[in-house]
Amino acid sequence: MSANTQRLKLPLLRTEKGRRTITGYLFILPFILGFLIWFLLPAAVAVWLTFYDWNMIRDPIFIGLENFKEIFRDKLFLQSLKVTAYYTLVSVPVSLVLSFLVAMLLNSKVRGISVFRTIFYIPSIVPAVANAVLWNFVFNTEFGLINMVLRALGLPKVMWLQKPEWAMPALILMSLWGLGGGVVIYLAGLQGIPETLYEAAEIDGAGRWAKLRYVTVPLISPVMFFNLIMGIIGSFQVFTAGFLITAGGPQNATLFYVLYTYRTGIQYFDMGYAAVLAWILFFIILGLTLFVFKYVGRLVHYETI
Amino acid sequence: MTELSSVSIIPVSKPGKKLIGERLWRAFIWALLVFGAAVMILPFLWLLTSSLKTQLAIFRYPPQWIPNPVRFQNYVEAWTTKPFGVYLRNTALILILNEIAIVGTSSLCAYGFARIEFPGKNFWFGVLLSTMMLPGIVLMIPTFVIFSRLHWVNTYYPLIIPAFFGGGAFNIFLLRQFFRTLPEELTDAARIDGCSEFGIFWRIMMPLAKPALATVAVFTFIGTWNDYMGPLLYLSKDPNKYTVALGLATFRSAFLGRTRWDLLMAASTMMIMPIIVIYFLAQRYFIQGIAVSGLKG
To answer: A223 contacts in B (CB within 8 Å)?
Structure first.
Protein backbone atom coordinates (compact mmCIF):
# COMPACT_ATOMS: atom_id res chain seq x y z
CA MET A 1 0.00 0.00 0.00
CA SER A 2 2.65 2.46 1.03
CA ALA A 3 4.90 1.39 -1.80
CA ASN A 4 2.04 2.03 -4.16
CA THR A 5 1.52 5.65 -3.05
CA GLN A 6 5.26 6.18 -3.20
CA ARG A 7 5.27 5.28 -6.89
CA LEU A 8 2.39 7.63 -7.63
CA LYS A 9 4.31 10.64 -6.39
CA LEU A 10 6.54 12.69 -8.67
CA PRO A 11 10.17 11.53 -8.62
CA LEU A 12 11.28 14.96 -7.31
CA LEU A 13 9.17 14.55 -4.21
CA ARG A 14 10.95 11.36 -3.17
CA THR A 15 14.08 13.02 -1.91
CA GLU A 16 14.51 15.72 0.71
CA LYS A 17 16.46 17.83 -1.82
CA GLY A 18 13.76 17.44 -4.43
CA ARG A 19 11.06 18.55 -2.02
CA ARG A 20 13.12 21.55 -1.01
CA THR A 21 13.66 22.52 -4.64
CA ILE A 22 9.93 22.49 -5.31
CA THR A 23 9.20 24.48 -2.14
CA GLY A 24 11.88 27.01 -3.02
CA TYR A 25 10.56 27.55 -6.51
CA LEU A 26 6.99 27.84 -5.20
CA PHE A 27 8.12 30.64 -2.90
CA ILE A 28 9.90 32.64 -5.60
CA LEU A 29 7.31 31.80 -8.27
CA PRO A 30 5.70 35.28 -8.20
CA PHE A 31 9.04 36.85 -9.00
CA ILE A 32 9.86 34.39 -11.80
CA LEU A 33 6.44 34.88 -13.40
CA GLY A 34 6.69 38.64 -12.98
CA PHE A 35 10.12 38.64 -14.57
CA LEU A 36 8.84 36.68 -17.56
CA ILE A 37 5.60 38.64 -18.03
CA TRP A 38 6.53 42.20 -17.06
CA PHE A 39 10.17 42.20 -18.03
CA LEU A 40 11.17 39.66 -20.65
CA LEU A 41 7.94 39.92 -22.64
CA PRO A 42 8.03 43.76 -22.88
CA ALA A 43 11.72 43.56 -23.78
CA ALA A 44 10.87 41.14 -26.62
CA VAL A 45 7.98 43.35 -27.75
CA ALA A 46 10.37 46.31 -27.70
CA VAL A 47 12.77 44.45 -30.02
CA TRP A 48 9.92 43.53 -32.36
CA LEU A 49 8.55 47.10 -32.41
CA THR A 50 11.83 48.62 -33.58
CA PHE A 51 11.40 47.04 -37.04
CA TYR A 52 7.81 48.20 -37.54
CA ASP A 53 5.89 51.33 -38.33
CA TRP A 54 2.84 51.13 -36.14
CA ASN A 55 0.35 53.65 -34.78
CA MET A 56 -1.69 51.05 -32.83
CA ILE A 57 -4.72 51.53 -35.11
CA ARG A 58 -3.85 50.10 -38.53
CA ASP A 59 -1.77 46.95 -39.02
CA PRO A 60 1.96 47.25 -38.31
CA ILE A 61 4.15 47.62 -41.42
CA PHE A 62 7.60 46.05 -41.52
CA ILE A 63 10.09 48.77 -42.40
CA GLY A 64 13.42 47.12 -41.59
CA LEU A 65 15.94 49.57 -40.19
CA GLU A 66 14.03 52.75 -41.10
CA ASN A 67 13.36 53.57 -37.41
CA PHE A 68 17.08 53.41 -36.69
CA LYS A 69 17.92 55.59 -39.70
CA GLU A 70 15.38 58.15 -38.50
CA ILE A 71 17.58 58.79 -35.45
CA PHE A 72 20.21 60.47 -37.61
CA ARG A 73 17.67 62.82 -39.20
CA ASP A 74 15.78 63.65 -36.01
CA LYS A 75 16.74 67.05 -34.61
CA LEU A 76 14.45 66.68 -31.59
CA PHE A 77 16.21 63.47 -30.61
CA LEU A 78 19.49 65.36 -30.61
CA GLN A 79 17.90 68.22 -28.67
CA SER A 80 16.47 65.86 -26.03
CA LEU A 81 19.89 64.22 -25.64
CA LYS A 82 21.51 67.63 -25.19
CA VAL A 83 18.90 68.69 -22.65
CA THR A 84 19.30 65.50 -20.62
CA ALA A 85 23.10 65.67 -20.80
CA TYR A 86 23.03 69.29 -19.61
CA TYR A 87 20.77 68.35 -16.71
CA THR A 88 22.93 65.35 -15.77
CA LEU A 89 26.26 67.18 -16.04
CA VAL A 90 25.10 69.99 -13.75
CA SER A 91 22.62 68.45 -11.33
CA VAL A 92 24.46 65.19 -10.58
CA PRO A 93 27.82 66.67 -9.47
CA VAL A 94 26.21 69.63 -7.71
CA SER A 95 23.79 67.48 -5.74
CA LEU A 96 26.51 64.88 -5.05
CA VAL A 97 28.74 67.49 -3.38
CA LEU A 98 25.97 69.54 -1.81
CA SER A 99 24.22 66.56 -0.24
CA PHE A 100 27.57 65.36 1.15
CA LEU A 101 28.15 68.76 2.76
CA VAL A 102 24.62 68.77 4.17
CA ALA A 103 25.13 65.25 5.53
CA MET A 104 28.35 66.41 7.21
CA LEU A 105 26.43 69.24 8.84
CA LEU A 106 23.63 66.91 9.90
CA ASN A 107 26.13 64.48 11.38
CA SER A 108 27.41 67.03 13.89
CA LYS A 109 26.34 66.75 17.49
CA VAL A 110 24.49 69.99 18.12
CA ARG A 111 21.20 70.67 19.80
CA GLY A 112 18.02 69.92 17.84
CA ILE A 113 19.82 67.92 15.15
CA SER A 114 16.89 65.54 14.60
CA VAL A 115 14.65 68.50 13.77
CA PHE A 116 17.18 69.66 11.16
CA ARG A 117 17.38 66.17 9.70
CA THR A 118 13.60 66.05 9.31
CA ILE A 119 13.52 69.47 7.65
CA PHE A 120 16.16 68.46 5.11
CA TYR A 121 14.58 65.08 4.38
CA ILE A 122 10.88 65.88 3.94
CA PRO A 123 11.10 67.79 0.62
CA SER A 124 12.48 64.63 -1.00
CA ILE A 125 9.24 62.71 -0.39
CA VAL A 126 6.87 65.44 -1.59
CA PRO A 127 4.77 64.02 -4.47
CA ALA A 128 6.22 64.98 -7.86
CA VAL A 129 2.94 66.53 -9.00
CA ALA A 130 2.52 68.70 -5.90
CA ASN A 131 6.19 69.62 -6.24
CA ALA A 132 5.65 70.70 -9.85
CA VAL A 133 2.58 72.79 -8.97
CA LEU A 134 4.36 74.46 -6.05
CA TRP A 135 7.55 75.29 -7.98
CA ASN A 136 5.59 76.51 -10.95
CA PHE A 137 4.27 79.17 -8.61
CA VAL A 138 7.64 79.72 -6.88
CA PHE A 139 9.17 80.55 -10.29
CA ASN A 140 6.26 82.76 -11.39
CA THR A 141 7.66 85.94 -12.93
CA GLU A 142 5.25 88.44 -11.35
CA PHE A 143 4.43 87.05 -7.91
CA GLY A 144 6.62 83.99 -7.44
CA LEU A 145 8.69 83.53 -4.28
CA ILE A 146 12.08 83.68 -6.00
CA ASN A 147 11.46 86.87 -7.93
CA MET A 148 10.05 88.48 -4.79
CA VAL A 149 13.27 87.60 -2.96
CA LEU A 150 15.29 89.01 -5.89
CA ARG A 151 13.20 92.17 -5.79
CA ALA A 152 13.80 92.52 -2.06
CA LEU A 153 17.53 92.30 -2.78
CA GLY A 154 17.20 94.98 -5.46
CA LEU A 155 17.86 92.56 -8.32
CA PRO A 156 15.91 92.50 -11.59
CA LYS A 157 13.25 89.85 -12.05
CA VAL A 158 14.04 86.76 -14.12
CA MET A 159 11.60 85.09 -16.51
CA TRP A 160 12.51 81.65 -15.18
CA LEU A 161 10.11 79.51 -17.16
CA GLN A 162 9.72 81.67 -20.27
CA LYS A 163 13.35 82.06 -21.32
CA PRO A 164 15.17 79.05 -22.81
CA GLU A 165 18.40 79.91 -20.98
CA TRP A 166 16.71 80.10 -17.56
CA ALA A 167 14.28 77.19 -17.68
CA MET A 168 16.88 74.48 -17.11
CA PRO A 169 18.65 76.26 -14.21
CA ALA A 170 15.19 76.65 -12.65
CA LEU A 171 14.44 72.93 -12.88
CA ILE A 172 17.89 72.07 -11.52
CA LEU A 173 17.36 74.45 -8.60
CA MET A 174 14.03 72.76 -7.95
CA SER A 175 15.63 69.30 -8.03
CA LEU A 176 18.16 70.39 -5.40
CA TRP A 177 15.31 70.98 -2.98
CA GLY A 178 14.83 67.19 -2.97
CA LEU A 179 18.45 66.28 -2.17
CA GLY A 180 17.38 64.82 1.20
CA GLY A 181 17.15 61.28 -0.16
CA GLY A 182 20.86 61.25 -1.00
CA VAL A 183 21.68 63.03 2.27
CA VAL A 184 20.13 60.23 4.35
CA ILE A 185 22.26 57.64 2.55
CA TYR A 186 25.40 59.69 3.19
CA LEU A 187 24.35 60.13 6.81
CA ALA A 188 24.01 56.37 7.27
CA GLY A 189 27.51 56.02 5.80
CA LEU A 190 28.98 58.74 8.01
CA GLN A 191 27.52 57.13 11.12
CA GLY A 192 29.13 53.85 10.13
CA ILE A 193 32.62 55.35 10.38
CA PRO A 194 34.10 54.19 13.70
CA GLU A 195 34.87 56.99 16.16
CA THR A 196 38.19 55.32 16.98
CA LEU A 197 39.56 56.21 13.53
CA TYR A 198 39.02 59.91 14.23
CA GLU A 199 40.61 59.54 17.66
CA ALA A 200 43.61 57.79 16.13
CA ALA A 201 43.92 60.55 13.54
CA GLU A 202 43.75 63.18 16.30
CA ILE A 203 46.57 61.47 18.15
CA ASP A 204 48.59 61.66 14.95
CA GLY A 205 47.98 65.40 15.02
CA ALA A 206 45.29 65.59 12.37
CA GLY A 207 43.18 68.73 12.27
CA ARG A 208 39.64 69.11 10.91
CA TRP A 209 40.78 69.27 7.30
CA ALA A 210 43.14 66.28 7.57
CA LYS A 211 40.43 64.18 9.24
CA LEU A 212 38.04 65.03 6.44
CA ARG A 213 40.62 64.33 3.74
CA TYR A 214 42.17 61.15 5.13
CA VAL A 215 39.38 59.55 7.15
CA THR A 216 35.92 60.74 6.10
CA VAL A 217 36.37 61.03 2.33
CA PRO A 218 38.02 57.61 1.77
CA LEU A 219 35.54 55.86 4.03
CA ILE A 220 32.51 57.56 2.52
CA SER A 221 33.67 57.06 -1.07
CA PRO A 222 31.67 53.82 -1.62
CA VAL A 223 28.50 55.70 -0.58
CA MET A 224 29.45 58.60 -2.82
CA PHE A 225 29.97 56.16 -5.67
CA PHE A 226 26.56 54.59 -5.02
CA ASN A 227 24.93 58.04 -4.99
CA LEU A 228 26.74 58.92 -8.22
CA ILE A 229 25.40 55.84 -10.03
CA MET A 230 21.88 56.39 -8.69
CA GLY A 231 22.09 60.09 -9.57
CA ILE A 232 23.05 59.37 -13.18
CA ILE A 233 20.35 56.72 -13.62
CA GLY A 234 17.77 59.03 -12.01
CA SER A 235 18.72 62.07 -14.08
CA PHE A 236 18.04 60.16 -17.29
CA GLN A 237 14.52 59.45 -16.10
CA VAL A 238 13.37 62.98 -15.29
CA PHE A 239 9.87 63.44 -16.64
CA THR A 240 7.32 65.12 -14.39
CA ALA A 241 9.07 68.48 -14.00
CA GLY A 242 9.61 68.91 -17.74
CA PHE A 243 6.13 67.64 -18.55
CA LEU A 244 4.08 69.62 -16.03
CA ILE A 245 6.03 72.83 -15.46
CA THR A 246 7.53 73.69 -18.83
CA ALA A 247 5.93 71.12 -21.20
CA GLY A 248 9.37 70.68 -22.74
CA GLY A 249 9.64 74.36 -23.58
CA PRO A 250 10.47 77.15 -24.04
CA GLN A 251 11.85 76.28 -27.48
CA ASN A 252 12.47 72.68 -26.38
CA ALA A 253 14.95 73.85 -23.73
CA THR A 254 13.56 71.29 -21.26
CA LEU A 255 12.66 68.49 -23.68
CA PHE A 256 13.98 65.69 -21.46
CA TYR A 257 14.70 62.36 -23.12
CA VAL A 258 11.88 60.47 -21.40
CA LEU A 259 9.47 63.30 -22.17
CA TYR A 260 10.38 63.03 -25.86
CA THR A 261 9.95 59.26 -25.76
CA TYR A 262 6.56 59.69 -24.07
CA ARG A 263 5.44 62.17 -26.72
CA THR A 264 6.60 59.98 -29.58
CA GLY A 265 4.88 56.87 -28.29
CA ILE A 266 1.92 57.86 -26.17
CA GLN A 267 0.92 61.16 -27.79
CA TYR A 268 1.88 60.64 -31.47
CA PHE A 269 1.55 56.83 -31.42
CA ASP A 270 4.77 56.25 -33.34
CA MET A 271 5.40 53.03 -31.41
CA GLY A 272 8.28 51.67 -33.49
CA TYR A 273 10.33 54.84 -33.22
CA ALA A 274 9.50 55.24 -29.52
CA ALA A 275 10.80 51.70 -28.92
CA VAL A 276 14.06 52.64 -30.64
CA LEU A 277 14.32 55.68 -28.38
CA ALA A 278 13.75 53.47 -25.32
CA TRP A 279 16.48 51.05 -26.41
CA ILE A 280 18.90 53.91 -26.93
CA LEU A 281 18.11 55.13 -23.41
CA PHE A 282 18.81 51.64 -22.10
CA PHE A 283 22.22 51.49 -23.81
CA ILE A 284 23.12 55.02 -22.71
CA ILE A 285 22.38 54.18 -19.07
CA LEU A 286 24.15 50.82 -19.33
CA GLY A 287 27.15 52.40 -21.04
CA LEU A 288 27.39 55.24 -18.53
CA THR A 289 27.08 52.86 -15.59
CA LEU A 290 29.84 50.60 -16.94
CA PHE A 291 32.00 53.64 -17.71
CA VAL A 292 31.55 54.98 -14.19
CA PHE A 293 32.29 51.56 -12.68
CA LYS A 294 35.48 51.25 -14.73
CA TYR A 295 36.91 54.75 -14.40
CA VAL A 296 35.43 56.17 -11.21
CA GLY A 297 35.11 52.87 -9.37
CA ARG A 298 38.88 52.57 -9.03
CA LEU A 299 38.96 55.76 -6.98
CA VAL A 300 36.67 54.18 -4.41
CA HIS A 301 38.32 53.07 -1.21
CA TYR A 302 37.09 49.77 0.19
CA GLU A 303 37.99 49.34 3.83
CA THR A 304 38.09 45.92 5.41
CA ILE A 305 37.41 46.40 9.06
CA MET B 1 47.81 57.18 32.93
CA THR B 2 49.34 60.18 34.62
CA GLU B 3 52.80 59.11 33.51
CA LEU B 4 51.68 58.86 29.94
CA SER B 5 50.01 62.22 29.77
CA SER B 6 53.02 63.95 31.27
CA VAL B 7 55.17 62.89 28.32
CA SER B 8 52.98 64.51 25.77
CA ILE B 9 54.36 64.17 22.28
CA ILE B 10 51.55 66.01 20.53
CA PRO B 11 51.79 69.75 20.14
CA VAL B 12 48.57 70.96 21.70
CA SER B 13 47.54 74.58 21.75
CA LYS B 14 46.46 76.12 25.04
CA PRO B 15 43.29 74.45 26.33
CA GLY B 16 41.48 77.77 26.78
CA LYS B 17 42.11 78.80 23.20
CA LYS B 18 41.02 75.41 21.90
CA LEU B 19 37.75 75.61 23.82
CA ILE B 20 36.95 78.98 22.27
CA GLY B 21 37.82 77.64 18.83
CA GLU B 22 35.52 74.69 19.40
CA ARG B 23 32.69 76.98 20.47
CA LEU B 24 33.13 79.23 17.45
CA TRP B 25 33.15 76.18 15.20
CA ARG B 26 29.90 74.93 16.71
CA ALA B 27 28.29 78.32 16.31
CA PHE B 28 29.41 78.32 12.68
CA ILE B 29 27.92 74.83 12.10
CA TRP B 30 24.72 75.89 13.78
CA ALA B 31 24.45 79.03 11.66
CA LEU B 32 24.89 76.99 8.49
CA LEU B 33 22.25 74.51 9.65
CA VAL B 34 19.78 77.26 10.44
CA PHE B 35 20.40 78.94 7.08
CA GLY B 36 20.01 75.64 5.18
CA ALA B 37 16.87 74.71 7.09
CA ALA B 38 15.38 78.14 6.36
CA VAL B 39 16.00 77.65 2.64
CA MET B 40 14.42 74.19 2.76
CA ILE B 41 11.39 75.38 4.73
CA LEU B 42 10.70 78.54 2.73
CA PRO B 43 8.88 76.81 -0.18
CA PHE B 44 6.66 75.01 2.37
CA LEU B 45 5.83 78.25 4.14
CA TRP B 46 5.11 79.87 0.79
CA LEU B 47 2.80 76.99 -0.11
CA LEU B 48 0.95 77.17 3.18
CA THR B 49 0.49 80.94 3.35
CA SER B 50 -0.50 81.16 -0.32
CA SER B 51 -3.10 78.45 0.24
CA LEU B 52 -4.75 80.65 2.88
CA LYS B 53 -4.69 83.93 0.95
CA THR B 54 -7.39 85.71 -0.99
CA GLN B 55 -6.80 86.05 -4.73
CA LEU B 56 -5.83 89.69 -4.25
CA ALA B 57 -3.34 88.99 -1.47
CA ILE B 58 -1.52 86.50 -3.73
CA PHE B 59 -0.44 89.34 -6.02
CA ARG B 60 0.68 91.73 -3.30
CA TYR B 61 4.28 92.91 -2.81
CA PRO B 62 5.88 92.61 -0.31
CA PRO B 63 4.25 89.21 0.27
CA GLN B 64 2.25 88.68 3.45
CA TRP B 65 3.74 85.77 5.38
CA ILE B 66 0.75 85.75 7.68
CA PRO B 67 -2.29 86.12 5.42
CA ASN B 68 -4.82 88.71 6.38
CA PRO B 69 -7.61 87.71 6.12
CA VAL B 70 -7.01 83.98 6.47
CA ARG B 71 -9.16 82.23 3.88
CA PHE B 72 -9.83 78.58 4.81
CA GLN B 73 -12.54 78.60 2.16
CA ASN B 74 -9.77 77.93 -0.42
CA TYR B 75 -9.55 74.35 0.82
CA VAL B 76 -13.29 73.81 0.51
CA GLU B 77 -13.30 75.38 -2.95
CA ALA B 78 -10.29 73.36 -4.12
CA TRP B 79 -11.89 70.16 -2.85
CA THR B 80 -15.14 70.82 -4.72
CA THR B 81 -13.82 72.44 -7.92
CA LYS B 82 -12.73 68.98 -8.96
CA PRO B 83 -14.23 65.80 -7.47
CA PHE B 84 -11.30 65.14 -5.14
CA GLY B 85 -13.49 62.82 -3.07
CA VAL B 86 -13.74 60.52 -6.07
CA TYR B 87 -9.99 60.81 -6.76
CA LEU B 88 -9.26 59.96 -3.14
CA ARG B 89 -11.50 56.88 -3.29
CA ASN B 90 -9.80 55.73 -6.52
CA THR B 91 -6.34 56.26 -5.04
CA ALA B 92 -7.35 54.39 -1.88
CA LEU B 93 -8.52 51.42 -3.94
CA ILE B 94 -5.22 51.21 -5.83
CA LEU B 95 -3.31 51.79 -2.61
CA ILE B 96 -4.98 49.03 -0.59
CA LEU B 97 -4.63 46.45 -3.33
CA ASN B 98 -0.99 47.40 -3.90
CA GLU B 99 -0.22 47.08 -0.20
CA ILE B 100 -1.74 43.60 -0.07
CA ALA B 101 -0.02 42.53 -3.29
CA ILE B 102 3.39 43.93 -2.53
CA VAL B 103 3.69 43.03 1.14
CA GLY B 104 2.24 39.57 0.45
CA THR B 105 4.22 38.46 -2.58
CA SER B 106 7.52 40.23 -1.88
CA SER B 107 7.76 38.55 1.53
CA LEU B 108 7.10 35.11 -0.04
CA CYS B 109 9.85 35.63 -2.62
CA ALA B 110 12.21 37.13 -0.04
CA TYR B 111 11.75 34.11 2.23
CA GLY B 112 12.51 31.76 -0.67
CA PHE B 113 15.71 33.66 -1.45
CA ALA B 114 16.77 34.04 2.18
CA ARG B 115 15.98 30.71 3.80
CA ILE B 116 15.61 27.84 1.33
CA GLU B 117 18.53 26.19 -0.43
CA PHE B 118 17.71 24.97 -3.92
CA PRO B 119 19.51 24.66 -7.25
CA GLY B 120 19.20 27.76 -9.43
CA LYS B 121 18.60 30.11 -6.51
CA ASN B 122 21.74 32.14 -7.12
CA PHE B 123 20.87 32.46 -10.78
CA TRP B 124 17.45 33.91 -10.01
CA PHE B 125 18.87 36.17 -7.36
CA GLY B 126 21.30 37.50 -9.95
CA VAL B 127 18.34 38.10 -12.26
CA LEU B 128 16.63 40.00 -9.45
CA LEU B 129 19.66 42.22 -8.84
CA SER B 130 20.04 42.98 -12.54
CA THR B 131 16.39 44.01 -12.86
CA MET B 132 17.03 46.48 -10.05
CA MET B 133 19.65 48.16 -12.21
CA LEU B 134 17.35 48.66 -15.20
CA PRO B 135 15.10 51.69 -14.92
CA GLY B 136 11.48 50.69 -15.47
CA ILE B 137 10.95 53.68 -17.72
CA VAL B 138 12.87 51.89 -20.48
CA LEU B 139 10.00 49.39 -20.72
CA MET B 140 7.28 52.08 -20.68
CA ILE B 141 6.48 51.86 -24.42
CA PRO B 142 6.29 48.06 -24.87
CA THR B 143 4.40 47.69 -21.58
CA PHE B 144 1.88 50.25 -22.79
CA VAL B 145 1.51 48.28 -26.03
CA ILE B 146 0.90 45.05 -24.09
CA PHE B 147 -1.70 46.65 -21.82
CA SER B 148 -3.56 48.21 -24.72
CA ARG B 149 -3.66 44.83 -26.52
CA LEU B 150 -5.18 43.39 -23.34
CA HIS B 151 -7.71 46.28 -23.42
CA TRP B 152 -6.52 47.30 -19.96
CA VAL B 153 -6.05 50.99 -20.79
CA ASN B 154 -8.66 53.04 -18.87
CA THR B 155 -8.85 50.34 -16.21
CA TYR B 156 -7.05 50.03 -12.87
CA TYR B 157 -5.47 46.68 -13.83
CA PRO B 158 -2.14 48.07 -15.10
CA LEU B 159 -1.66 49.81 -11.75
CA ILE B 160 -2.60 46.79 -9.64
CA ILE B 161 -2.00 43.42 -11.33
CA PRO B 162 1.80 43.70 -11.84
CA ALA B 163 2.21 44.29 -8.09
CA PHE B 164 1.09 40.71 -7.40
CA PHE B 165 4.20 39.38 -9.16
CA GLY B 166 6.81 39.73 -6.45
CA GLY B 167 6.10 43.35 -5.56
CA GLY B 168 9.29 44.78 -7.05
CA ALA B 169 12.91 43.73 -6.84
CA PHE B 170 13.76 46.41 -4.30
CA ASN B 171 11.21 45.16 -1.77
CA ILE B 172 12.25 41.52 -2.20
CA PHE B 173 15.86 42.54 -1.69
CA LEU B 174 15.06 44.56 1.43
CA LEU B 175 13.02 41.76 3.06
CA ARG B 176 15.56 39.12 2.07
CA GLN B 177 18.27 41.09 3.88
CA PHE B 178 16.04 41.22 6.94
CA PHE B 179 15.08 37.50 6.92
CA ARG B 180 18.75 36.59 6.76
CA THR B 181 19.40 38.35 10.06
CA LEU B 182 16.89 36.16 11.96
CA PRO B 183 18.45 33.20 13.84
CA GLU B 184 18.43 29.80 12.06
CA GLU B 185 17.66 27.96 15.34
CA LEU B 186 14.08 29.22 15.32
CA THR B 187 13.24 27.64 11.99
CA ASP B 188 15.28 24.47 12.63
CA ALA B 189 13.27 23.78 15.79
CA ALA B 190 9.99 24.24 13.95
CA ARG B 191 11.17 21.98 11.13
CA ILE B 192 11.96 19.19 13.60
CA ASP B 193 8.47 19.59 15.03
CA GLY B 194 7.14 18.86 11.55
CA CYS B 195 6.09 22.36 10.65
CA SER B 196 5.73 22.92 6.91
CA GLU B 197 7.92 25.47 5.15
CA PHE B 198 4.91 27.71 4.59
CA GLY B 199 3.96 27.31 8.25
CA ILE B 200 7.43 28.45 9.28
CA PHE B 201 7.19 31.41 6.95
CA TRP B 202 3.70 32.40 8.02
CA ARG B 203 3.72 31.66 11.72
CA ILE B 204 7.33 32.30 12.73
CA MET B 205 9.06 34.55 10.23
CA MET B 206 6.26 36.97 9.34
CA PRO B 207 5.50 38.05 12.93
CA LEU B 208 9.23 38.62 13.50
CA ALA B 209 9.55 40.59 10.27
CA LYS B 210 6.94 43.19 11.24
CA PRO B 211 9.38 46.15 11.27
CA ALA B 212 10.72 45.26 7.82
CA LEU B 213 7.21 44.67 6.50
CA ALA B 214 6.20 48.07 7.86
CA THR B 215 9.12 49.61 5.96
CA VAL B 216 7.91 48.00 2.73
CA ALA B 217 4.34 49.11 3.44
CA VAL B 218 5.45 52.71 4.05
CA PHE B 219 7.53 52.86 0.86
CA THR B 220 4.61 51.34 -1.04
CA PHE B 221 2.29 53.99 0.34
CA ILE B 222 4.62 56.80 -0.70
CA GLY B 223 5.31 55.26 -4.11
CA THR B 224 1.63 54.70 -4.93
CA TRP B 225 0.38 58.01 -3.54
CA ASN B 226 3.08 59.93 -5.42
CA ASP B 227 2.89 57.95 -8.68
CA TYR B 228 2.06 60.14 -11.63
CA MET B 229 3.42 58.29 -14.66
CA GLY B 230 1.27 55.19 -14.12
CA PRO B 231 -2.11 56.96 -13.82
CA LEU B 232 -1.09 59.34 -16.64
CA LEU B 233 -0.46 56.42 -19.01
CA TYR B 234 -3.48 54.31 -18.12
CA LEU B 235 -6.21 56.48 -16.55
CA SER B 236 -5.94 59.93 -18.12
CA LYS B 237 -8.79 59.41 -20.62
CA ASP B 238 -11.47 58.83 -17.97
CA PRO B 239 -11.83 61.62 -15.36
CA ASN B 240 -13.95 59.32 -13.15
CA LYS B 241 -10.93 57.07 -12.66
CA TYR B 242 -8.39 59.82 -11.85
CA THR B 243 -6.10 59.45 -8.86
CA VAL B 244 -5.30 62.39 -6.59
CA ALA B 245 -2.00 62.95 -8.44
CA LEU B 246 -3.71 63.00 -11.82
CA GLY B 247 -6.50 65.24 -10.49
CA LEU B 248 -4.01 67.76 -9.13
CA ALA B 249 -2.01 67.71 -12.39
CA THR B 250 -5.12 68.59 -14.40
CA PHE B 251 -6.42 71.07 -11.81
CA ARG B 252 -5.09 74.11 -13.67
CA SER B 253 -7.26 73.44 -16.67
CA ALA B 254 -10.36 73.77 -14.46
CA PHE B 255 -10.19 77.57 -14.73
CA LEU B 256 -10.37 79.67 -17.83
CA GLY B 257 -7.98 82.57 -18.04
CA ARG B 258 -6.28 83.48 -14.80
CA THR B 259 -4.58 80.67 -12.86
CA ARG B 260 -6.08 80.25 -9.40
CA TRP B 261 -2.83 79.91 -7.44
CA ASP B 262 -4.70 80.15 -4.13
CA LEU B 263 -6.75 77.03 -4.91
CA LEU B 264 -3.81 75.23 -6.54
CA MET B 265 -1.72 75.75 -3.41
CA ALA B 266 -4.59 74.53 -1.21
CA ALA B 267 -4.96 71.39 -3.32
CA SER B 268 -1.19 70.78 -3.28
CA THR B 269 -1.12 71.17 0.50
CA MET B 270 -3.86 68.56 0.78
CA MET B 271 -1.87 66.17 -1.38
CA ILE B 272 1.36 66.67 0.59
CA MET B 273 -0.25 66.37 4.05
CA PRO B 274 -0.74 62.58 4.12
CA ILE B 275 2.92 62.09 3.17
CA ILE B 276 4.09 64.28 6.03
CA VAL B 277 1.74 62.54 8.48
CA ILE B 278 3.04 59.14 7.33
CA TYR B 279 6.59 60.38 7.75
CA PHE B 280 6.05 61.37 11.36
CA LEU B 281 4.10 58.21 12.18
CA ALA B 282 6.60 55.88 10.58
CA GLN B 283 9.87 57.79 10.87
CA ARG B 284 11.88 54.87 12.19
CA TYR B 285 10.81 52.61 9.33
CA PHE B 286 12.13 55.13 6.83
CA ILE B 287 15.53 55.15 8.45
CA GLN B 288 15.46 51.35 8.72
CA GLY B 289 14.65 50.90 5.05
CA ILE B 290 17.48 53.15 4.00
CA ALA B 291 19.95 51.62 6.43
CA VAL B 292 19.16 48.00 5.51
CA SER B 293 19.54 48.37 1.81
CA GLY B 294 21.40 51.58 1.19
CA LEU B 295 18.75 52.44 -1.34
CA LYS B 296 16.00 54.98 -1.38
CA GLY B 297 12.49 54.17 -2.44
So the answer is: 294
